[in-house]
Amino acid sequence: MRSFLFVPADSDKKLSKAADAGADALILDLEDSVAPSRKETARAMARDYLMSAREGGPKICVRMNALDTPLWRDDLKSVVPHRPYAILIPKTLSGDCVKQVSAALADIEADTGLPAEGVRLFCVATETPASLFSLGTYAGASPRLFGLTWGAEDLAAALGARSNKNDAGVYTEPYRLARTLTLLGAVAAGVIPIDGVYKDFRDEAGLEREAREAARDGFTAKMAIHPAQVPVINRVFTPSEADVAHARAVVEAFDKAGDVGVVALDGVMLDIPHLKQARALIARAEAGQHTD
Ligand code: COA
Ligand code: MG
Topology of domain 3-236, per CATH? Predict the structure, then answer.
């Protein structure tokens, strides 16, 4: 999965456009893009959307309200019986939050006769200052956990920051740290690192730059807030033909050399980490061909 498109769950218009945006997954939002007075409406609309979703469309996820609100349990009760692909937990503080939601999901699955652990989880794991100190705690939290992502907006609000970007439009240090810790925490936990949203949805060049930097560093997906962002994200996170050809050449060079730990290709030294990287990229490209 390369692209996750946020859709405020109380917007008929946006829900009606979402499935055709080309995203690998949708995130029907019950949290911060929905006004407090509209929470119940949003739950009902998310439920209807799940019930009428077509086969072969994007995977449908739902963002619940945070664990420190009185809303999240009712969010889960409304949507989980209709089998979303995953629940996105906002504002997690550590792997314990994943355990807490996983236990609540298990109760609903048992009550409604759904397969155990059928609904997956992912987290926005950097929205409070304290959460940055716990990004190493997600490993083993739950077999449901498949991804971690990060957000700069709530963190900036919590820090009382005037901005989270510098004059050149690049994230400043606290947010770079949040991004880096998310990448490391996700890979350490064996789940996918998903880059956060790019807010300026008319700035395609800026989005592409940020997405390329994320892909360069190891993120394998990025969230979107507007349909126009989806094709850019899909393109950037799909391994290019040139990337795949290079990866195949690396594997072939090792195959030809036999039982060795180091080879040379086009004047460049390659050792075992490069072979692992090449194999991972080929696997991702091949998986993409099956799911897209
Ligand atoms: N999902 C589905 N459709 C969307 C969409 C989204 N996230 N964002 C916009 N659209 C639709 C609009 O409804 C509009 O439809 P129309 O052509 O039938 O009028 C079309 O795409 C073009 O939208 P545009 O006019 O360019 O933007 P907008 O001013 O309507 O919306 C936002 C801008 C930012 C308010 C909107 O993109 C949005 O709500 N994004 C998601 C916000 C969110 O979920 N935030 C929480 C996570 S950070
Ligand atoms: Mg947020």
Answer: TIM Barrel (3.20.20)
